[in-house]
Amino acid sequence: MATIHVDIVSAEGEIFSGEASMVFAPAVMGEIGIAPRHAPLLTTLKPGEVRVQTPAGEEQFFYVSGGAIEIQPHVVTVLADTALRARDLDEAAALSAKQRAEEALRNRGDVIDSAKAQAELVRATAQLKMLDKLRKIKQ
Amino acid sequence: MPGIKEIRIKIASFKSTQKITKAMKMVAASKMRRAQERMSATRPYSEKIRRVIGHLRHANPDFKHPFLVERPAKSVGFIIISTDRGLCGGLNVNLFKTTLAAIRDWQKQGVDVSVCLIGAKAVNFFRRLSNVKTLATVTHLGDRPHVADLIGTVKVMLDLYREGKLDRLFVVNNVLVNTMTQKPTVRQLLPVAGEESEDNKLQKLWDYIYEPSAAELLDGVLMRYIESQVYQGAVENVACEMAARMVAMQSATDNAGKLIEELQLIYNKARQASITKEISEIVGGAAAV
């Protein structure tokens, strides 16, 4: 019986890798069933279940919270998301990242002050050390 | 010569410092092992997604995604991944040196440079530079960074790239060569560099069936690809941080040991001198009587 290789991976680890006789996945346009020698297909996944039928006739279930699936005649690659994705959520995350950057810039003033103070401290200690050395030489 | 008591106090303080550095070293060692495991766990995803991208480059969609198209560089962006905490030797300093060299190179060509910062150390360092614009920051990812924490910062850069305000995007992070050596590296993220896939069997003229549309799909996949690259960089940087801290703390412990030894010698000498002095005083006193 013909089989197809299946890799299910997420960014934080490998989930499944092995041969299958049939794979079912929740694509955005509806559930798809993939048999060996399927035509090349690229689509995104909705949150749902990926079912893998092994050649031995067993069925394995994997939950994915979305992602993408790539189908080549002999390989199926499921790129599962670990994070919940939605346009609004991504937008909010981007916005807060920008705000953090602006805040860091706004605090620049007192950082310069503290840097200045630090530089002065270093200079003062160096001067003290120099004086100490001079005193020793005189003795 | 300083008093005996002062030396004794100094020795005690060095000993407690040594205990702290030793404990930090052991903590770093165990964290490093876990970080390395996480590092290898991210590998399958980035390998697979690279394979998909490789296939994509061979496919012939009637639509060219901006992430795959090279433009003349007028402004470039750097995503700089540093640590949140110090006490890890020259790890961050080396990283910033490499980054600055790369930034200077671009600036010499009259190219605008802006950065996206990950980690408190980078934020502290780059806010002192006035000719580099900071676009986004994220700090305190902890020892176990999550993809979800990075999405926002990466999106800021990708959006700018899409709008044509950035023409190149690089990621800078430390690469773990082994426990003793961490190498700062600059890698190009965008446009996605052409990596020749080994599948020459793939016919030259074919295309995917795209559901729903090529534009939307490519965008999703490429975005995830970039995110996974940045995520991998972040995870690897944590492993580097732990390795560097382990080495730094080991040498600090050794140095404290050496100092204690030296001080102990001085202390013994001082103690002996004071005893000798006392005896000679007693003997002198007895002779006088």
TrEMBL record, chain A:
UniProt entry tagged with the keyword Cell membrane: yes
Ranges for domain ATP synthase epsilon subunit C-terminal come to: 88-130
Which family does the entry's similarity section mention? Belongs to the ATPase epsilon chain family.
Q: What are the residue boundaries of the ATP synthase F1 complex delta/epsilon subunit N-terminal domain, all occurrences included?
A: 4-83
Localization per Swiss-Prot or TrEMBL:
Cell membrane
Give the main location. Answer: membrane
The molecular function terms in GO held by this entry are: ATP binding; proton-transporting ATP synthase activity, rotational mechanism
Stated name of the protein? ATP synthase epsilon chain
Its biological purpose is as follows: Produces ATP from ADP in the presence of a proton gradient across the membrane.
Q: Which GO terms describe its cellular component?
A: plasma membrane; proton-transporting ATP synthase complex
The protein's superkingdom reads Bacteria
Which keywords has UniProt assigned to this entry? ATP synthesis, Cell membrane, CF(1), Hydrogen ion transport, Ion transport, Membrane, Transport
Assembly: F-type ATPases have 2 components, CF(1) - the catalytic core - and CF(0) - the membrane proton channel. CF(1) has five subunits: alpha(3), beta(3), gamma(1), delta(1), epsilon(1). CF(0) has three main subunits: a, b and c.
Ranges in a coiled coil: none
Q: PANTHER family of this UniProt entry?
A: ATP SYNTHASE DELTA/EPSILON CHAIN (PTHR13822), ATP SYNTHASE EPSILON CHAIN, CHLOROPLASTIC (PTHR13822:SF10)
Q: How does it sit in the membrane?
A: Peripheral membrane protein
From TrEMBL, chain B:
Query: Keyword set for this entry?
Result: ATP synthesis, Cell membrane, CF(1), Hydrogen ion transport, Ion transport, Membrane, Transport
- Tell me what topology the record assigns in the membrane: Peripheral membrane protein
Family under the similarity heading? Belongs to the ATPase gamma chain family.
Q: What is its main location?
A: membrane
What PROSITE patterns does UniProt report for this protein, alphabetically?
ATPASE_GAMMA
What's one GO BP annotation on this UniProt entry? proton motive force-driven plasma membrane ATP synthesis
Gene (name only): atpG
Q: Which GO terms describe its molecular function?
A: ATP binding; proton-transporting ATP synthase activity, rotational mechanism
Q: What does this protein do?
A: Produces ATP from ADP in the presence of a proton gradient across the membrane. The gamma chain is believed to be important in regulating ATPase activity and the flow of protons through the CF(0) complex.
Q: Give the superkingdom in one word.
A: Bacteria
Q: Which GO terms describe its cellular component?
A: plasma membrane; proton-transporting ATP synthase complex
Q: How does it assemble?
A: F-type ATPases have 2 components, CF(1) - the catalytic core - and CF(0) - the membrane proton channel. CF(1) has five subunits: alpha(3), beta(3), gamma(1), delta(1), epsilon(1). CF(0) has three main subunits: a, b and c.
Q: What is this protein called?
A: ATP synthase gamma chain
| Compartment(s) where it occurs, according to its Swiss-Prot or TrEMBL record | Cell membrane; Membrane
Q: Which organism is it from?
A: Povalibacter uvarum
